[in-house]
From TrEMBL, chain A:
One of its GO terms (molecular function) is hydro-lyase activity. Pfam families: Fumerase_C. Gene3D superfamilies: Fe-S hydro-lyase, tartrate dehydratase beta-type, catalytic domain. SUPFAM superfamilies: FumA C-terminal domain-like. Keywords: Lyase. This is Fumarate hydratase. Residues 3-175 form the Fe-S hydro-lyase tartrate dehydratase beta-type catalytic domain. Belongs to the class-I fumarase family. NCBIfam families: PRK06842.1, ttdB_fumA_fumB. It comes from Fictibacillus phosphorivorans.
From TrEMBL, chain B:
InterPro entries: Class-I_Fumarase/Tartrate_DH (IPR051208), Fe-S_hydro-lyase_TtdA-typ_cat (IPR004646). It comes from Fictibacillus phosphorivorans. Residues 11-279 form the Fe-S hydro-lyase tartrate dehydratase alpha-type catalytic domain. This is Fumarate hydratase. Keywords: 4Fe-4S, Iron, Iron-sulfur, Lyase, Metal-binding.
Length: 183, 281
């Protein structure tokens, strides 16, 4: 089955049509955030109720790239383990976050929140950071500059390869995929 | 007696750190190729192809194959007739890591304090260094860039001797099952059985330094490795945990004598970015 081309941000209509296991190629704007940025966002929400980025409708990519070599847009930039962000994720989904890209399991709370808010969780290929970096065309720092590589960046991507792991109905490809090949 | 200079060690270590991150060993690439021929899942095949392409890009552009350039773990075989001049061995290794990681645009991934999470001041150091004193006058440095995702899913358990080989197998299979996608399969599964609490973990780590396809010399252990490899690949987890028949590229087991009342088992998972280099001085 050919990969589905998607432009980011992804429309609510399109998110509803995505199914666990679909291979997709993402093009457009996505934002980066990992542990430290999530912690900051969660503190900002508690203190002021406001975030430095409008995340409604957007996609967050869990990544902490290597430093860019001179002339490179970004260093190697594969996904990091999403589970570390689980604690902070439902609050962001409530604010309208529509998609996440990472690797690995999500908690039951996150899966419930994905269903409730009609969002989607994509898996990128862990350990393919050199390949993924080629799909990142520009990178611009948006917030929390002092966090260095852990700051929030706005990325423009072209045909970033990913797989739908948890769709808006809560189907989980890690479970479905595994059952097909168990013997 | 052989004399090895501090600076020489720094230079070699620095180079190894970069090579490990840019050039995935041929043993791993070959394992991807042969897995690709056998893999049943379309998504799984697609992932293996991307991993092969990724390794190619990393080598040709001299960029790290994965953004987690890891903790540098060393096993040093130090000949007792080898003399190091100009400084301490541990300092030379750390200096080499710092230099290699900084100059190679590799990621600094070490915090100094595990609780406060304060970042370490020495770029990606301190490293983890194990020294084994051996016969002769050589200095052999084995280096691995060990990823955090797979390390986090590793386990250790003190089994009862009555749990026997079935207990050992079940513990290994459970570890791989629980790790699922988080350890970035296809995996290299390193196992240490025996010794004591800390030795079993060390043996598991050490086993990962063996190239893929190299079996334990003891027949019964090599058979156990192959049996576990088959069982793990029947779990269905597949490349990146997205379903398939390639969950492990290899299983490595090391054993050691232990106490009459003990059966320690440690399982150290390594992701497909199984990065190892070796140098003999
Ligand atoms: S587990 Fe290995 S392949 Fe996966 S992100 Fe970490 S270092 Fe890279």
């Amino acid at each position: 089955m050919a990969a589905i081309q998607l432009s980011c941000p992804i429309s609510d209509e399109e998110i509803k049509t995505l199914k666990a296991g679909d291979r997709v190629l993402l093009s457009g704007t996505i934002y980066t955030a990992r542990d430290a940025a999530h912690k900051r966002m969660s503190e900002a929400l508690q203190n002021s109720g406001k975030l430095p980025v409008q995340i409604a409708g957007q996609i967050i990519y869990y990544v902490g790239p290597t430093p860019a070599k001179p002339g490179q847009v970004i260093g190697s930039a594969g996904p990091t383990t999403s589970g570390r962000m689980d604690k902070y994720t439902p609050a962001l989904l409530e604010l309208g976050l529509k998609g996440m890209i990472g690797k690995g399991y999500r908690s039951d709370e996150v899966v419930e929140s994905i269903k409730k808010n009609k969002a989607v969780y994509f898996g990128a290929i862990g350990g393919s950071g050199a390949l993924i970096a080629r799909t990142i065309k520009s990178s611009e720092i948006i917030a929390y500059q002092d966090l260095g590589p852990e700051a929030i960046y706005k990325l423009e991507v072209k045909e970033f390869p990913a797989i739908v792991i948890i769709d808006s109905k809560g189907n989980d490809w890690y479970e479905i995929g595994k059952q097909q090949y168990q013997s | 007696m052989k004399i090895i200079k501090y600076e020489e060690i720094v230079k070699h270590v620095s180079k190894m750190c970069q090579e490990a991150n840019f050039d995935l060993g041929q043993d791993v690439v070959n394992a991807f190729q042969s897995a690709l021929k056998k893999e049943k899942s379309e998504t799984g095949k697609d992932i293996l192809e991307q991993l092969i392409a990724n390794a190619d890009i990393a080598t040709s552009e001299r960029v790290p194959m994965c953004q987690d350039t890891g903790v540098s773990v060393f096993i040093i075989e130090l000949g007792q007739d080898c003399h190091i001049t100009g400084g301490k061995l541990y300092d030379a290794i750390n200096e080499g890591v710092k230099k290699g990681y900084e100059e190679g645009y590799l990621r600094h991934s070490i915090v100094d304090h595990p609780i406060t999470r304060e970042k370490s001041k020495g770029y990606n150091t301190p490293s983890i260094i194990h020294v084994e004193l051996v016969e002769g006058d050589e200095l052999v440095i084995h280096m691995s860039a060990k990823g955090g995702g797979s390390e986090n899913m590793s386990t250790l358990k003190m089994l009862k001797p009555s749990d026997g080989v079935e207990g050992v197998k079940n513990f290994i299979l459970d570890t791989v099952r629980v790790a699922g996608p988080n350890a970035c399969p296809p995996l290299v599964v390193g196992v240490g059985v025996g010794g004591n609490f800390e030795r079993s973990a060390y043996l598991a780590k050490k086993s990962l330094f063996r190239p893929i396809g190299h079996r334990n010399e003891r027949t019964e252990i090599s058979e156990l490795e192959m049996e576990l490899m088959e069982k793990i690949n029947q779990l269905g987890i597949g490349p990146q945990g997205m379903g398939g028949s390639t969950t492990a590229l290899d299983v490595k087991i090391e054993i050691e004598p232990c106490h009459i009342a003990a059966l320690p088992v440690a399982v150290n998972l390594n992701c497909h970015a199984s990065r190892h280099k070796e140098i003999r001085l």
